[in-house]
């Protein structure tokens, strides 16, 4: 089993070829492909974790769609002062499919 742990947007994801992952918004090139940074690579029984070897490993992904996450409501309230504040946030996300690990 070949898989890699990639870093994107301050998070780490375990990916294999064919895995569909939702991560923070990433700009793709004209062909819709992106390169992800590998933090760990497992190829059968061989585990690679040193930076020099990981620099040679390429994890390629294809952008499927850009989307937005669920709405998160932020509310602030102070008792007896009449202060209320309501704010919303929707995170910009990208759904990608891992096409190659080499």
TrEMBL record:
One of its GO terms (biological process) is translation. Belongs to the bacterial ribosomal protein bL21 family. Coiled coil: none annotated. Part of the 50S ribosomal subunit. Contacts protein L20. This protein binds to 23S rRNA in the presence of protein L20. Keywords: Ribonucleoprotein, Ribosomal protein, RNA-binding, rRNA-binding. GO terms for cellular component: cytoplasm; ribonucleoprotein complex; ribosome. This is Large ribosomal subunit protein bL21. The lineage of its organism: Bacteria, Bacillati, Actinomycetota, Actinomycetes, Micrococcales. GO terms for molecular function: rRNA binding; structural constituent of ribosome. The gene is rplU.
């Amino acid at each position: 089993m070949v898989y890699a742990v990639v870093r994107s947007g301050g998070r780490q994801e375990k990916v294999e070829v064919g895995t569909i992952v939702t991560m923070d918004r990433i700009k793709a090139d004209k062909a819709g492909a992106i390169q992800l940074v590998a933090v760990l690579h497992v190829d059968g029984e061989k585990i690679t974790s040193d930076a020099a070897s990981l620099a040679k490993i390429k994890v390629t992904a294809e952008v499927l769609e850009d989307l937005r996450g669920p709405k998160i409501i932020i509310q602030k309230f102070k008792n007896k002062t009449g202060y209320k504040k309501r704010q919303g946030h929707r995170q910009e996300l990208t759904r990608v499919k891992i096409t190659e690990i080499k």
